[in-house]
Amino acid sequence: MSQAKLLQRLFALMIGTLLLLPLAATADEDEEEEHEPLPFSELVITEPAQRYSEETGCVAPEEEMRRNHMEYILHQRDETMHKGIRTRQFSLEECINCHAIKDDNGEYVRVEDERHFCATCHTYASVKIDCFQCHSDVPVRASRLRTQQSGLAPHPYDKPFAGKLASETLPLLTTEE
Amino acid sequence: MKQVLNYRETEGKSTGFWILLGGLGALIGLALGSVLYMEHEGHYVTGMNNQIVWGMPHVFAIFLIVAASGALNVASIGTVFGKSLYKPLGRLSALLAIALLIGGLMILVLDLGHPDRLIVAMTYYNFKSIFAWNIILYNGFIAITAVYLWFMMERKMNKYYPVAGFFAFIWRLILTTGTGSIFGFLVARQAYDAALLAPMFVIMSFAYGLAVFILVLMAGYAWTGRPLGDAVLFRLKNLLGVFIASVFYFVVVYHLTNLYATEHHGVERFILMDGGIYTKLFWIVQILLGTLLPLAMIYHPTIGKSRPAIATAAALVIIGGFAQLYVLLIGGQAYPLVLFPGHEIVSGGFFEGQINEYSPSIWEISLGVGGVALSLIMVTIAVRVLKFLPTSLEDSVVDPHAAKAD
Amino acid sequence: MSDTSKPIDPSRRQFVTRAGGAAGAAAIAPGVFLTTPAQAKPADQPVSSENRWGILIDANKCGNGCNACVTACEEENGWGSADPSEDRSRPDQKAHWIRKVTIRDKATQHVTTLPLMCQHCETPPCVDVCPTGASFKRADGIVLVDKHICIGCRYCMMACPYKARSFIHEDLKDQRPWAPRGKGTVESCTMCVHRVDEDGTPACVEACNAETHKAMVFGDLYDENSEISQELKKHGGKEIRADLGLNTGVRYRGI
């Protein structure tokens, strides 16, 4: 009967593998060589080239951004994609514009490089992101934060103040003084 | 002497068993290797392109999915229509249905541009999409058939299995209708825009599913040395004959309807006369080898009683089925979209108005074969570990009253 | 776009020119704003179903042999000749957003040339068939692919009557930030949604006007004062495959 048990296990294993297949299919096969896990505090996270504002530094307090940046990006992604809301504060393009890092030759480092701002932590934490399959990982055009600094809160519909700036400035610019 | 119907696991100690497992395992391994390569490099390594967007993997996947719902028919005839001769076959029938469906779905999922986003397919639903409905229908089919199987095999639940069988039967009809509708709802394409495709797929499933079932049954009983009586086999092969004829009828009606509408003359001419490989596949493989030859073999008074002939006929139906899906799927895409009726294309970017080329790559074929191998390996292992197959399907066992019941 | 250290591209130059033009108008006549966009949408406001964007293409004005709209689209959205990273795909696997087609009437021998792209249907078949809802239509009628939830099943490509969609067959690099695109997803003409959201004109229309063919008019079909509505009201316009009843946003004249 032990052979039957073995086969039963094999069967279960097969079903299990089957469920994991889709994930395995796109996993990177070039595994990194083992190296000592570095404590997080020793990760070199380069200072961004420019700051969103004097008070907050980043577009939201740094603690908040470290923990929840994906929520902001995800929210902005759906707002922009489906509703055409194109505020700059939480746009991925502006993340890249501020946080892009240049190497010794003055070239921007790509996301495959561990010095890339996103890659630094994501490699450390082994969290794979597929943003850059489609999005540019280096700045292409200059920041437009200054010209379109609207939508101060990430959830325009939760907070009444949200987006006042843009709604009010646009008519100001287009109607008489 | 009265014999009792008795289910038992297959032996599984022989070298043959392990060779079978090893062979099928190797095919699955090759398929997985192909998938890793295709998904890592991107679909440019395949023969598929922006005109033929669904290729060989889809031919295999749709065949397996269609055959899956058809394989359940044998169980349904026993349960829903109360034909006692089919009842001993119910367990294998339901098992085969689940295995074929999983094989087909594996191909479909692994060919996606983003198989890693399977979770997205499960969490974001567009209920207007027949594809989204099919995701629910496929998962539901596996669940319902599994329950049906459990009720059949668990003595305590045995009294409920007719109910489960009835639901499974209804569900499978809806499922194949859904699969056919994937094409039936495509108004844009000349070859697909027909509501007839849904019932046609249902009939196709009857034939393909039964052909696969007959082959698996014959192989299973021959390789395990269990007796398989003529009563069961001849009944199944006669049924197969009826199904082949029905598919043929639908194919004829489908083409006649298209020929009636002048706007479809172009695509009909393409498939039936000057489509090159598609025309050959249609006439030689689908019609001659896949329909007329097996029909003749099955109904021939002497050949029809020979077991090798029955097995060959079933195999021919499967080959014809692949050809039919290839012609429908790839041929339907190869024929260009008609955007400007009454006009000829002088020039145009991106292969405007041209017959689209497709030659399947080894990776796609390997993925398709891997799906078939997965289905078969599941059946092989399942009949080894659980009581699916009756120890004997001799005439005296299956239906002592067969003569009277007829 | 291989040299990323010099982030200058034609579209940006055009954007600057446009902005400069508007500012100029403001300076010349303070208080009187002739160039005030009718549908100025603040960046933080969602698009509205009170607009329906469309393009009217006059095939009689379209230049035989002119490819300006296609080139402009490639440059703006970074595909085709403007995307050196898509080099392993075969020609029949490469992306295409817009193409020029020349047809001849079998009866009259009349030759017509026209650009063909996503027709931005009101009832798009691609949206109906998409299992995840990645293929969708915005409130203002622009049909898009949400590549974040596209699983790459290609059913929309099967359903589209215009062959307007492409599947990306390989890894891409250096995409335009305003037109993200990548392996394993489906894409098509976005009617330059990033420009439209900032009151701009699609690149193809702009290029056509720059060539002085003026065969393409872009505008709001629901605004009866817009040029496109006026033109359509006066001269009418045809849909390609009107028999499907898709009520396309792209209309043609002279076919």
In terms of topology, how is this protein built?
The complex is a heterotrimer of chains A (177), B (406) and C (255).
Chain A: H1 2-26, H2 62-83, H3 92-99, H4 117-125, H5 131-134, H6 164-174
Chain B: E1 7-8, H1 15-41, H2 56-71, H3 73-79, H4 90-110, H5 118-123, H6 130-153, H7 161-184, H8 197-224, H9 230-260, H10 265-274, H11 277-299, H12 307-334, E2 343-348, H13 362-385, E3 389-390, H14 395-398, H15 402-405
Antiparallel strand pairs in B: 1-3
Chain C: H1 10-28, E1 53-58, H2 68-77, E2 98-105, E3 111-117, H3 125-129, E4 135-137, E5 143-145, H4 155-159, E6 166-167, E7 186-187, H5 193-196, H6 203-210, E8 216-220, H7 227-235, E9 250-253
Parallel strand pairs in C: 1-9
Antiparallel strand pairs in C: 1-8, 2-3, 4-5, 6-7
Helix pairs in contact in C: 2-6
Shape of chain A: elongated
Oligomer status: heterotrimer
User: How many helical elements of chain A?
Assistant: 6
Give the chain pair forming the largest contact, with residue counts: B-C, 51 and 59 residues
Mean pLDDT of chain A: 74
CATH architecture classification of chain B: Up-down Bundle
Structure summary, number of beta strands of chain B: 3
Strand fraction of chain A? under 5%
Give the distance, in angstroms, between the N- and C-terminal Cα atoms of chain A: 91 Å
Q: What fraction, in percent, of the residue positions of chain B are helical?
A: 55-70%
The H-and-E topology of chain B, N to C, reads as: EHHHHHHHHHHHHEHEHH
The whole-angstrom Rg of chain B is 22 Å
Largest sheet of chain A: none
Q: Globular, elongated, flat, extended or rod-shaped: what is the shape of chain B?
A: globular
> Any idea what the radius of gyration of chain A is?
22 Å
According to DSSP, the number of beta strands of chain A is 0
Quick recap:
The complex is a heterotrimer of chains A (177), B (406) and C (255). Chain A has 177 residues and is mainly alpha-helical.
List keywords for this structure.
heterotrimer; A: mainly alpha; 6 helices; 0% strand; disordered C terminus; B: 406 residues; mainly alpha; Formate dehydrogenase/DMSO reductase fold; two-stranded antiparallel sheet; 3 strands; globular
